Amino acid sequence: MSGSGKSEPNVGGAAVAEQTMKLADLFTGAEIAAIRGSNEIEVRSITYDSRRVRPGALFFALKGEKEDGIKYLASALERGAIAIASEAPRSTQVPSQIAWVQIQPGAQRRALATASANFYGRPGRALKLVGVTGTNGKTTTTYLVDSILRAGGARTGLIGTIGARTPRGRREAVNTTPESLELQQMFAEVRDENGKAVVMETSSHALAMDRLWGCHFAAAVFTNLTRDHLDYHKSFEEYFAAKRRLFEGTGAGPADVGVVNADDPYGKQLEGIALRTFTYGLKNGAQIKAQKYPLAFSGLEFTAQTPVGKIEVQSRLVGKINVYNVLAAIGAGIALDVNSAAIERGIRDLESVPGRFERIAAGQPFLVIVDYAHTDDALRNLISTARELSVNNRIITLFGAGGDRDRTKRPLMGEAAGTLSDTVVLTSDNPRSEDPLRIINDVLVGLQKTGAKYFVEADRQKAIEIAVNEAKPGDIVLLAGKGHETYQVLRDGPVEFDDREVARRVLRGHGYGVTNN
Length: 517
Prior knowledge:
α3 packs parallel to α5 (180-192), α4 crosses α11 (340-349) and α12 (376-389) runs parallel beside α13 (410-420). A 9-stranded mixed beta sheet has the order 11-10-9-12-8-13-14-15-16, sandwiched between helices. It is an alpha/beta fold. The radius of gyration is 24 Å and the shape is globular. The longest helix is centred in the middle third of the chain and has 16 residues, at 320-335. It folds into 3 domains: 21-119, Udp-n-acetylmuramoylalanyl-d-glutamate--2,6- Diaminopimelate Ligase, Chain: A, domain 1; 123-349, Mur-like, catalytic domain (UDP-N-acetylmuramoyl-L-alanine:D-glutamate ligase), CATH 3.40.1190.10; 358-509, Alpha-Beta Complex (Protein-Tyrosine Phosphatase, Chain A).
């Protein structure tokens, strides 16, 4: 492959299209030093993965953190590449008839984004793009905004952690925000099926790596900012700077409207960056706010005060954190000129979000909840939500920390879980290449400070059995960290593992009959 550095399942990297485009036209607006060879050749496809090269392809030899695509030139040429794009000078192993596009230093991913957009006819210009960024709440907020837009009559695309959906079907996620090539391909699918908008999670990695270069956002939404991804960004301020780019613009001008959480200190720093700003929150200073929001397992029902009048909210989502997500989605709906009735209907129509406070119902006398929470702040939100909904019952929290990721958040996760839970079951998440016991020991540093009762079991299936065995009538069992994921990434690669299915299997083993959620 070309050195994109992906290690998760289902690696992508190719565009399949019937159209062709001259090489010179592909790089209109890109930061290139020179095209050596004919710039009139007709390119039939673009890819940055040598395994996906087809005859007539342009191969981007990207230099990643772990690998350099130059290593795969021979493979790309053997498969039929007719042009190579790279920051490196022309390689001596490339035949003279092969065109070489030399990209300006530091501009390889911006060039990929520009060429991809050109190849598909700049599809983003025909769509309203909505980007949602923040540490927590991105997935739920995108699902809400998408539901609101569809309630308003628009055909849409939805891209994020759980996967992507266009009018032509669904695909699994490799990254929260795909590489620019896949993004432009999906934008084109939405445009070509008379779609009007794409709602997407915009991760800090994607913003920092120019995957969104050239995309103009009709609405940019900020949920919150807490500690995460510091293995990549190196500092919290660098992490925030990446999020800020969504509002400032990524080569196509600032966002038309920014929708920011006024209750978050970093949200306040984003006010006024987009051409217009709507603020939301639970405090009086916000433009979109909720002052009374009863919390119950049945869902949310409250009145939102907004610049366009009152909006009545009825939602099956639960907890205070989802009050924020709903308010953010209302702000995006207003920014996109969706009428209040459609906003209300869109919120009401969304039944659930996969792996986000998802209930596993098997007739057992206690609740089992699966959630994607995998940071200390997300764990606090998850456990606090359960506590708000059931003040007097015990909470049993199962979680682990991911391997090959920011080690500094591990003790913080342990402390958050131990402080707020009655019992903790500490296990593995996606250990990747790390020793699971080393990860667990890092988490224990924080957990043991709390004095909470806890169990340690590295085998996640056995750990789920321990959590269920501990549960008594009325308790709440939280299975945190993996949410919608259907695999676990171990040292030797991914294996099938779905917390929801394992929980159902364990409950069946206890004699409970599974029913539909």
